[in-house]
Amino acid sequence: MARVRVGLFVTCLVDLMRPRIGFAALKLLEGAGCEVIVPDTQTCCGQPAWNSGDAPGAVALAKKTIAEFEAFEYVVAPSGSCSDHIRTEYPVLLAEESEWLDRATALASRTYELTDFLVTVMKVDSVPGKHQGTVTYHDSCTGLRSMGIKQQPRALLAKLKGLELTEMNGCEECCGFGGTFSVKFGEISAAIAERKCENILASGAQAVVGGDLGCLLNIEGKLRRMGNESTQVLHVAELLAGED
Amino acid sequence: MNSREDILGRVRNGLQRNGSNAAVGREEMQSSLSSRTQGPKPVFDSEPKALLERFRLKSEKQSSTVDIVAQESDVPTAINRYLTAMNLPKSAVAWPSLAALDWALAGLVVEARGARDADLVGITGCFCAVAETGSLMLCSSAATPSSVSLLPETHIAVVPAARIVPYMEDAWALARTELGSLPRAVNFISGPSRTGDIELTIVLGAHGPYRVHLVIVEN
Amino acid sequence: MEIKSMYFKANAKTKLADVALQGNLENARGRFVTTRAEAIKELDDFEGTRDAAEAIRNRVIDNLDLWLERFEHKALDTGAKVLWAKDGAEVCRLVIEIAKRHDVKKVTKSKSMLSEEAGLNQALEAAGIQPVETDLGEYILQVDNNEPPSHIIAPAVHKGLNDVADLFHKVHGTPRKTDIPALTREAREVLRQHFLSAEMGLSGGNFLVAETGSVALVTNEGNGRMVTTMPRVHVVITGIEKVIPTLEDLSTLMRVLPRSATGQSISNYFSILTGVKKPEEHDGPEHLYFVLVDSGRADVVGSDFHAMLRCIRCGACMNHCPVYQTIGGHAYGWVYPGPMGSVLTPLYAGMENSIDLPHAATLCNQCGIVCPVKIPLPDLLRKLREKQTERGLRPLTERIGLRLWAWVAQQPRLYALGARIGARYLKWLAGGTDRIRLLPTAPEWSLGRDFPAPEGKTFRELYAARKHQAKETP
């Protein structure tokens, strides 16, 4: 049977900050039996432009991304936020251009967040990672509220022997990142992050895990500034893929 | 141009109003006024006994107290018992519609009129009661003045069990049948007045009654 | 009300540093969220009820002109008078005219956010008429030198018990009390005399019922009933968008409003007021006026922000907003705080006066999820950001920066080069550690947290290298 052809949308943040998350996603998708292609012209989905009020910029980047990825059966991103932007916002952005709207809608229906894809589409029953210890899961806003990413990462984490999930209070509350919000209103953003970190610390977990790098950078930065050195901050893909 | 025309004109502009969409709009308006569509409602047993029980439970949840008596003639004695237990005065203002009850026989001094500031106990009936939320529905009239349920520190309401309906929608249906048009004031009352304006701490007795006591008449 | 939204950022900073306020916000945060969550469980089909509530509001605002005419017609039939006001100044003028016509010296008021918009209290005072706020929260603010509310449901939620204790001691000249029921009783006794002596009562309106020409009022304290029962004159000030079709629709909306607002199954008092008292009746006003107010609403009809007119002013969006929870309502600088305020303030009080507000949100969509009439608040905030950019209201550096970034992101080679340099630069900033203490390109980030160091090479580089290696070693 032909393998499922997946275009991996790495996301600009993973490209810049944490390539290992991209490789972990690659490993998981290949492990699930997919043929994974990483288009090398990909850059950013355009969400920062859209959220900052630059509609023309967002439209241009949407068209670019559609052209790069529409040949694949599926598009998968290790981020709820970026995959939702393609899935939910592209059709809104391109609503006025009927040809592009059709292409956007077609792509949207085939775009998935990584854990959602592994669980819902590939129905994986094992993952390569190993982890000893307690973790707590931060539900990133867009993935949770727009894409319904909640049980998928937990179902996959449950497959890791030795991992114990300890839910924190307010796991669905925003961490205060909000993209450009975090650099426009740094103090408010950091104060919201502090509440999140207090909940993480109160859970007693050795690691906090999430599916969106933006939130994770925010949480890690705040934990360290609060003087916490011991709590690991990990992307769910890293945990699931394990060490190479 | 006067403000009315100016405002409506801009609303019409915003809606790109023209002759044909106005006709459609009017039709939609007429149909929603006549169809009186109801939204989803919580499901519960609407047998009379179950309704009474739900009404009692919900009323208590709203911090009302509830007494159940067999018939209307038992009401004055039941109220006397309540006032004694609560160490409240035995004089009250009551709706003129309740003037016929034998208050004096039960040892109560009751004046049937609208309430004044000095009245400490107010006795009312109700138009009906809603089991869904444990609410009384009071309709104002000369015989049922609004102030009696508002000014006194203690409000006692007589609730015939047969007048407990499941939902607020049923109360409207009853009002349309029995009253035709709405009275000046319809008041749904669900427990004593309260406020949470200081530190979100709930305090009973804000501007209206501190306590609401319901006497449900079974027959 | 004077707008101070242009100082959002500076005000937010002050609020973050206010220890007492932070304590009060923490108290409020937990309660609003948990009580709502409990209350919606009582409905078997909360989502279905939300859908129905949304449909009811849409039905009216999509034909608002027709519904307004219908409401007006029915209200006139009941003996009420219907007046229209284009803006706050006209609201004040109309209310003062009514007061003078009926020889009114004192007005008792139940909570009306529109009266805050219009600055009505100041106008009444200037006309020699005494306004008395009777909602306990509003009363506390009025006697505290007319402080503006910080929440639309709980106006004094930013104040603590000690603040109120000091205030009442000073204003009432009574011994200082720190017992909440005793403070409440003290306010009750003061306000009772006002209820009995005022010639005119003024209220907002939660809904206007087109079927019957009635106003529906939702209160817990009973002050709404007092101001509409005791005085000779009752004036309802309400936005033109508040009309709903039928009493059945009112019932549906009442299943979501108190639950979303205060976590109650139903508010203590829910009054539907229709017309004036009959000669033989003991109580109720002899004169009833509706003042239907535009103040920016008419221009929202049919615009990109049309959905905002569905709002039923429950406050759930602010109660659940991480930003509101962190800074409270005053920082927003006008009548309406939180997500709904960040949409309404630019629309009603000027986009140029509230540049920060649409950006002061993480777009987490918690507000959209809890909104009982399903207003897509994050989408509306985003739309406002777009309008700001179109109108050139954003700082030039930001606009140029964004355009430049979006342009570079369309040039894959240039972008790849930029990312390579960026990864190395950030790595260098971390100086061999795992974090950057001060991010020169985004100093705001560093105000309260570190920035984790990058790995140092981009995914693109490493992936290319890996592919290259795979070719070399077959």
How does this structure look, described?
The complex is a heterotrimer of chains A (244), B (219) and C (474). By secondary structure, chain A is α/β, with parallel strands linked by helices. Chain A folds into 2 domains: 4-121, Rossmann fold (3-Layer(aba) Sandwich), CATH 3.40.50; 133-241, Rossmann fold (3-Layer(aba) Sandwich). Chain A is built from 13 helices and 8 strands. Chain A is globular, with a radius of gyration of 18 Å. In chain A, α12 (213-225) links the parallel β7 (207-210) and β8. Chain A has helices spanning 12-17, 19-31, 47-51, 55-69, 80-93, 98-108, 114-121, 141-147, 151-157, 181-184, 186-203, 213-225, 236-241, and strands at 4-8, 34-37, 74-77, 111-113, 133-138, 163-165, 207-210, 232-235. Chain B is α/β, with parallel strands linked by helices. Chain B folds into 2 domains: 3-35; 48-217, NagB/RpiA/CoA transferase-like (Rossmann fold, 3-Layer(aba) Sandwich), CATH 3.40.50. Chain B is built from 5 helices and 12 strands. Chain B has helices spanning 3-14, 19-35, 48-61, 75-85, 168-179; strands spanning 65-69, 91-94, 109-112, 121-124, 128-130, 135-139, 154-160, 164-165, 185-189, 194-195, 203-204, 211-217. A 6-stranded parallel beta sheet of chain B has the order 1-12-7-4-2-3, sandwiched between helices. In chain B, β5 and β6 form a beta hairpin. The N and C termini of chain B lie far apart (61 Å). The model of chain B has no long low-confidence stretch (mean pLDDT 97). Chain C is of the alpha/beta class and 474 residues long. Chain C folds into 2 domains: 5-299, Rossmann fold (3-Layer(aba) Sandwich), CATH 3.40.50; 400-472, no CATH class. In chain C, 52% of the residues lie in helices and 11% in strands. Chain C is built from 22 helices and 12 strands. In chain C, the strands form 3 sheets. Chain C has a 6-stranded parallel beta sheet, sandwiched between helices. In chain C, strands 8-5-6-9 form a 4-stranded mixed beta sheet, sandwiched between helices. A two-stranded antiparallel sheet of chain C has the order 11-12. In chain C, a hairpin with a 4-residue loop joins β5 (207-209) and β6. In chain C, α3 packs across α12 (247-262), α9 crosses α10 and α16 packs parallel to α18 (377-390). Chain C is elongated. The N and C termini of chain C lie far apart (75 Å). Chains in contact: A-C, B-C.
